[in-house]
Write a structure and sequence with these properties.
This protein is of the alpha+beta class. α1 crosses α7, α9 packs across α11 (about 255-270) and α24 (about 545-550) runs antiparallel to α25 (about 555-575). It is globular, with a radius of gyration of 29 Å. Residues about 275-300, about 515-525 and about 675-680 have low confidence and may be disordered.
């Protein structure tokens, strides 16, 4: 028996709100796009460009079809209209913004990804491919419902970038394009205040509230708003036009029709499946205010960015800096309004606190074990129960807080987890899986008992979960994030390089000011559930390997990383010559993954700037925590590292601290304990 395949969890679309590429003559591009679709017999995907002396020209087959279709028109004119179109001559990013983000008609990509890294405005142009969305079917239905002569007149007028007065087709296509543009996120930049991020609905509501115009004359139009401005100013929008650098309502618009349209669009946005994701990515990534607690209190390293790089974090610092609280807060902010997950007012159902004990020396306290006492059975732990629970809610991030993780040797009781973590792989459906923590035969051998102990009820969902356990064993759920809190004092164990190599380590220290103590009295300290929980995409990685990230990143980013990262890491290893602290491929992998996460947050930042940010963070989280030793070992390497980190401010400050500490204590490390600091003072 065949059942539907599971839901494909697609990554959030890059909003590209900051690019400065413009797009003009939209009528011409829409007409050419539709002609291409007809010329290729309505195929979903094809190459529409071909090379010609470091430029791109229209596919010959398409050009021949257009010549035949407009037989009687001048062939040189047709060739010019086609090959001078923005679809052919514009930089790919501008084309993508227009057709992927504003109108959602098609995806645009390079035909040969290996030769596209240097495309820039005024530079080379490379052949491109197009993959249509289902919106092209609707456009085709609108146009093809008219008679052939009217269609030809319409397409010829639009190819010449002219409107066709008193044309039903012209009106219907403009109406359709206006509706398609309503979901597009827009941005305006201001000199002395935060950027404004909005939808067209925000423009409409200004007019409904009595405004005569919307003033954007002195504001910088960037990203998608550049394309929409062209759309409006070229007379394509159904209701809006431009006048003296402002947006105004068209004089022919009837108030009742406009008011009804705004209501309909508002209802449409309410029901949009991407509404929450788009709002979430703008709020948490673009604006950066998921909460004050989750921003830059770690000295510039963002918790969210680190988690999307790898779902295993170590939060290190003295007691009382809020390490455990941060984990619980993330769970509260992401917990959906599901009774089974919101039954507890003090701890959400997607959060589990595991208190590590000093006598843990193997994995049995976490993963359970087989026992003969009282009859054969498998001893189930809270950790295992929580992982199974996470499998029931794959669209919700689940947080495990390993409290005081280094009270016992982590590499001993957490060995299986560390190994399985590195086995993760991205599947074709977009999910991430791993090798099993508990073998499948355990769940067959003790089925009756484990059904009870794991609270597997008779619902279809729970049965499906247990079937997966019997078939595949207990693997790391792709929605699981493990955060270990680490108190750096004389009672705890140092982390081995194996652990540090597999985790994202963030050092937390209380501010050396009275501010945090004053803030204690300001209220609002209680954690609570949210009406609009944050989407899981803000917390969970989309890829596991650098190669996967490189295949998704824009071509110029991928090219820049391939060219610069190997040399950068080689220089780092040169600074670590003569020490056991040299880094290998895992650091390179996570540097690129961190860059990938930063790009989601900063669509308009340069690749050079993002790599510098990523390198600074990776030095702090993956490299410097490995380094410890006496003067004989570290004096020379620290001097070399100081020179290497001159352009990485966080790492540079940390190296300076370590250098200052070395002659005083004759020993230094990155995360020095509070006790050791006191002794040196």
């Amino acid at each position: 028996m065949s059942y539907p395949k599971s839901f494909s969890d697609r990554p959030l679309q890059e909003l590209r709100l900051g690019i400065k590429s413009s797009y003009h003559k939209i009528r011409n591009s829409i007409a050419l796009l539709y002609c291409m679709y007809l010329a290729m017999d309505r195929q979903a995907s094809f190459e529409y460009g071909e090379s010609s002396k470091n430029t791109q020209k229209l596919n010959q087959k398409i050009e021949v079809w257009i010549n035949n279709y407009f037989k009687g028109e001048n062939s040189d004119t047709i060739k010019r209209l086609c090959n001078d179109s923005c679809l052919i001559v514009s930089q790919i990013e501008a084309i993508q913004v227009c057709f992927e983000l504003v109108f959602r008609l098609a995806k645009i990509s390079f035909s040969d990804k290996d030769n596209c890294g240097s495309e820039r405005t005024g530079g080379k142009r490379y052949p491109k491919s197009i993959s249509f969305t289902s919106n092209i079917i609707l456009l085709d239905s609108i146009i093809s419902s008219h008679n052939k002569d009217d269609i030809k007149d319409f397409l010829w007028a639009w190819l010449n970038n002219k409107s066709l007065e008193n044309s039903d087709i012209d009106f219907s296509v403009r109406q359709f394009l206006t509706i398609l543009s309503e979901k597009c996120m827009l941005k305006m930049r201001f000199e002395n205040q935060d950027d404004l991020i909005f939808l067209q609905e925000g423009i409409y509501r200004s007019f409904l509230e009595g405004a005569d115009s919307v003033d954007i004359s002195e504001k910088e139009k960037v990203g998608t708003f550049r394309v929409l401005w062209s759309f409006i100013s070229e007379g394509l929008h159904l209701f809006l036009c431009t006048e003296n650098g402002k947006i105004v309502l068209q004089s022919t618009v009837k108030q009742k029709n406009f008011s009804n349209y705004v209501t309909e669009i508002s209802n449409y946005l309410d029901l949009s499946e991407s509404r929450t994701l788009e709002k979430g990515i703008v709020k948490a990534l673009t604006v950066g205010n998921i909460s004050d607690c989750l921003s830059d209190s770690s000295g510039g390293i963002k918790y969210l960015t680190a988690m999307r790089t790898k779902p295993f974090l170590l939060l290190a610092g003295i007691s009382g800096t809020g390490k455990s609280r941060i984990v619980k807060q993330m769970a509260f902010e992401s917990c959906p309004d599901i009774p089974a997950l919101r039954s507890d007012k003090t701890a959400p159902g997607n959060y589990e606190l595991i208190e590590v004990k000093p006598n843990w020396h193997d994995s049995s306290e976490l993963l359970g074990y087989e026992s003969e006492i009282g009859g054969p059975h498998y001893v189930v732990t809270p950790f295992v129960c929580f992982l199974v629970k996470a499998m029931r809610y794959p669209d919700v991030p689940f947080f495990v807080c390993m409290d005081e993780m280094n009270l016992a040797p982590v590499e001993q009781y957490f060995a299986e987890f560390l190994s399985v973590l590195e086995s993760r792989k991205l599947l074709s459906d977009g999910t991430i899986t791993s090798e099993p923590l508990i073998k499948a035969d355990i769940f067959s051998k003790y089925a009756d008992q484990l059904h009870r102990d794991l609270d597997i009820t008779d619902t279809e969902t729970y049965k499906a979960v247990y079937d997966r356990l019997k078939n595949d064993g207990l693997r790391l759920p792709s929605n699981l994030i493990v955060v270990g809190t680490v108190n750096m004092d004389e009672t705890t164990h140092q982390f081995s390089r194996k652990v540090i190599d597999r985790a994202m380590t963030i050092e937390m220290n209380i501010e050396d000011t009275e501010t945090p103590f004053k803030n204690f009295f300001e209220g609002g300290d209680a954690l609570h559930y949210y009406d609009n929980p944050q989407p899981k995409d803000l917390f969970l990685p989309k890829v596991v390997q650098a190669s996967e990230a490189l295949s998704i990143l824009r071509a110029e980013d991928a090219s820049y990383l391939k060219e610069n990262v190997p040399g950068l890491l080689h220089s780092l290893n040169s600074a670590l010559n003569g020490t056991p602290f040299k880094i290998a491929y895992r650091v390179q992998n996570e540097l690129i993954l961190y860059f990938f996460s930063l790009r989601e947050e900063n669509p308009d930042e340069t690749a050079e700037a993002l790599l510098a940010q990523a390198m600074d963070a990776i030095l702090m989280m993956k490299v410097l925590p490995r380094i410890e030793g006496d003067e004989d070992l570290l004096d020379k390497p620290l001097k070399a590292l100081a020179q290497f980190t001159e352009n990485y401010p966080q790492a540079s400050r940390k190296i300076a601290e370590m250098q200052e500490r070395l002659p005083q204590a004759h020993f230094t490390c990155s995360m020095i304990s509070a006790y050791s600091s006191w002794l040196m003072d």
